[in-house]
Write a structure and sequence with these properties.
With 95 residues, the protein is an all-alpha fold. It contains six helices and no strands. The protein folds into two domains: 46 residues, no CATH class; 38 residues. Helix 2 crosses helix 3.
Length: 95
């Protein structure tokens, strides 16, 4: 683990150094400092191996794609539904 002083001295915009990013994830004071250096450091602080979904990335992508397909079929079927009784009454000619 590196110290805050070492972190701040080593930080550069766009850093991808694993040790620096690990410190960034555990130290709020250095997170504030690093966001002033490069606002994208806020998003870099989110990363890490703990963000891999259960079952792995491929399983997650497969689940998302299945959900997209189901949603597409639901939308397609909803577009072809018969008129409701209210809509059919509105279309009847007035007597």
């Amino acid at each position: 683990m590196i110290s805050c002083q070492t972190y701040r001295a080593s930080l550069t915009a766009g850093t991808r150094d694993a040790a620096l990013l690990e410190h960034l994830r555990t130290c709020d004071a250095c997170l504030d400092f690093s966001v002033e250096v490069d606002p994208d450091n806020f998003f870099r602080s989110i990363g890490g191996s703990d963000l891999v979904p259960p079952g792995g990335v491929d399983a997650f992508v497969g689940d998302v794609m299945r959900a997209v397909q189901v949603r597409g079929k639901e939308t397609s079927m909803a577009a072809h539904h018969p008129l409701s009784w209210r809509q059919s009454r509105e279309r009847e000619p007035a007597t």
